[in-house]
Amino acid sequence: MSELWSAPTSRGPVRGRVTIPGSKSLTNRALVLAAIADGPSVVRRALRSRDTELMARALSSLGATVDTTGDDWRVTPLVRGERRDAEVDCGLAGTVMRFVPPVAALVNGSAAFDGDPHARTRPMAAVLDALRALGADVDDGGSGTLPFTVRGAGRVRGGEVVLDASASSQFVSALLLAGAAYDEGVVVRHVGPPVPSQPHLDMTVDVLRERGVEVDDSEPDVWRVAPGPVRAVDVTVEPDLSNAAPFVAAAAATRGEVLVVGWPARTTQAGDRLRDILTRMGAEVRLDDEGLTVRGGDLHGLDLDMRDIGELAPVVAALAALADSPSRLRGLAHIRGHETDRLAALHRELTRLGGRVTEHADGLGLEPAPLHGARFATYADHRMAHAGALLGVVVPGVEVEDVATTAKTFPGFAEAWSALVTGSGADA
Ligand SMILES: O=C(O)C1=C[C@@H](OP(=O)(O)O)[C@@H](O)[C@H](O)C1
Ligand SMILES: C=C(OP(=O)(O)O)C(=O)O
Predict the structure, then answer these.
(1) Angle in degrees, 0-180, between the axes of helices 170-179 and 94-104, rounded to the nearest 10
(2) Is the N or the C terminus of the chain less surrounded, counting Cβ atoms within 10 Å?
(3) Which molecular function terms from Gene Ontology are attached (predicted)?
(4) Is the entire prediction scored with pTM above 0.90?
(5) Which atom of ligand 1 is nearest to the CA of 242?
């Protein structure tokens, strides 16, 4: 898409307070679990965004009732074994394309899954093969990707499955989230290079236990979910800390000061690692009852293994491109399978702005270099748009393509961003 957004440039330090909408990962886990729970659930301060609305629609098409009219979403579970055919649009949402098929297998009918053009290239085979091994009927025409059809029989045997989840932690989360509803529960055993995104796996285990599901994750790379009811709960969704990343990074990049309201004191969100990353890059970070305050200082590069926090890579790479010393970001081979090949996209777009970037098989190297304005392509990737916006705070003339793609997880991003940066004295 070619619509351009002139990212506002700040004349001085970026200062302000921001309220970030709810977490995509927590909202979509809460919705999935509510759809198979033992009664009606409430998901308070649910994120309203493309990914979560797609999830609500997907679960509704499988027979759950998801009332999304207010900020607090109300979910009545689907009727297990009910006869119903469905069409599921996954958009570009990893959480929808991975988390919903194991639920569809519990419905008595055919669920046809498809998504955006790029969604058809995102890895899926491990989940689909695992579902077959657990007793479900899945037809992907041998592609191992979208589109595919899950022919649910109203119940799934379950049991033990071995898979390689090195391409995405979501393969494991998907099976664990539905596993308690399978006759024998589920045991997922990972074999292969390390599974990325450990915080997201911890989040999955945490939300299951919160609903009374018995999960054993004591053995490395093995997760056991006992069969049993998923308790319906009333939960409040935390702000999305990964979506807070560009805002706190703007403070770090401009010697500014930004407060993110309501940053949780304890969380499983990967974005919480920003506290450590920004400190290592030279910022001062304070977490108190009000939230997280980041105050920027000299901005340094860093050598960082990001395997656990791949969704932070675009913003951290953009910030590293503004630093006064080199950086090396590692452990990121799997983000080539995200919304776009993020390593290739970051390499291409940062280089276009004058950045000195080396693309490695598993990450990026960045050297300090004077940057200049240019068009910044986003490849339908919300986090590429965040990276472009961040660069534009410091570098005049950054024109971000298709900023509307941020609606995947944060509708209103551009407005919130402009309010913060122009409120700090910007050339919009
Ligand atoms: O389970 C989740 O909610 C997510 C897991 C991670 O996926 P990968 O393990 O594929 O990186 C993360 O990057 C994604 O944004 C959300
Ligand atoms: C990888 C991401 O999304 P998804 O849930 O679509 O995998 C992301 O939001 O950075």
Answers:
(1) 30
(2) C
(3) 3-phosphoshikimate 1-carboxyvinyltransferase activity
(4) yes
(5) 15
